[in-house]
Amino acid sequence: MELTNIQAAETSNGSYEKPRKEVLREQIRELVTQYHAEAFPARTFTPGQSDVPVSGKVFDAEDIQYAVDASLDFWLTTGRFAEEFERLFARVMGVRDARLVNSGSSANLVALSALTSDSLGDEALQPGDEVITVAAGFPTTVNPSIQNSLVPVFVDVQLDTYDIDVTQLEAALSDRTGAVMIAHTLGNPFDLDTVTAFCRKHNLWLIEDCCDAVGATYKGQSVGTFGDVSTASFYPAHHITMGEGGAVMTQKPALTKLIESFRDWGRDCWCAPGKDNTCGKRFEWQLGELPCGYDHKYIYSHIGYNLKLSDMQAAVGVSQLKKLPGFIEARRANFKRLYEGLSDLQEFFSLPQSTPGADPSWFGFPIAVKPESGLKREDVEKTLNQRKINTRLLFGGNLLRQPAYLKTKYRKIGDLPNTDYVMNNVFWIGVYPGLSDSMLNYIIEVFHEIARRR
């Protein structure tokens, strides 16, 4: 379609059936569809020559249309698409409120920071309080504790599920423990019965990092609904993509206000961008040592950040949400295909196990190279990468051995032997929806070649 065809919308008397800008929008959408077909054609997979990624964005013409549609509004900050996404995503996750931020890492920072607010009284986390977590994970599940002057307390993980070893929770407890903040590793829910019971027993906050686990359930209940606060990520590797982006979720309205405050500069006002006086008394507040009547839009109750995202990103998310059920189904199917195809190699490799009661929404397929097999992880990875099969380690391995954490104040329970085992022996391959049957068959074939050579 050419833009000159705009005249087709003109009536015989010279008026337009639709506003001209709307007709132009429709033509732009059609051109985007044509562009997508030309710019992103289906690719043929050639074993040994084509890459087999571990993750990546899966998108279509509609996703680009949404991004372009938002850009035509030129409302570049959070706007109508962000509001729609927050409403829809909260419904998908089964929570009362979801608030968008610019990344999953920012979501974790906002989630934990919100629990330091003085407005929570005796329940607020104070500098020096402890947060129970694991070292075999991603840095930004731990970093918010350090950034808020809290002390992380590291417990070990279980092998094969790679989730927290809940038998160490009581040993990790002290009179300064204030929260538990852990992730559902690679989309596999941790033992939520034990963790939630522990938090209730000791009156602790629970922050669920669901950045790898959107769509996972535990005993039929969605992850993200168990904690006081939970988080999600929309980085290209995750279950849906906005390019960048994340969300902070809660069932508690009082926490929603704090989440918004820490996300939006620490302000006390809750007006949406471009809105004024939703409280009805904008010039009647007296907070802190400010004069009575100081503009509520410029009153700050917290040391916050600006962690909003653009409406163009949110628009892509709205489109991607339509595809989420199919994405989750594909991840589970790909996981099942790999498990079945590699199950005869357990002399060499430990295959992943889901937590009892969990239905994971797998982010990746973790594999441990058994030391007694005579194989070494680095050799297996090198062979896979030479064959164009991409791999990743289980994030930071043992974060306490990373250079960034060598001088960090923390406690740990025991020597974390399983965490070191993860660091030395575990890696993962992809299950994301962009993998074809021929790619999965090729992966299985190459693993069998490695075992035969041994």
Question: What does this 3D model show about the protein?
Answer:
The chain contains 13 helices and 15 strands. Residues 1-9 have low confidence and may be disordered. The chain is α/β, with parallel strands linked by helices. Helix 2 runs antiparallel to helix 9. It folds into 4 domains: 3-41; 72-272 and 305-320, 3-Layer(aba) Sandwich (Aspartate Aminotransferase, domain 2), CATH 3.40.640; 273-300, no CATH class; 322-453, Aspartate Aminotransferase, domain 1, CATH 3.90.1150. An 8-stranded mixed sheet has the order 1-9-8-5-4-2-3-14, sandwiched between helices. Strands 10-12-15-13 form a 4-stranded antiparallel sheet. Helices cover 35% and strands 13% of the residues.
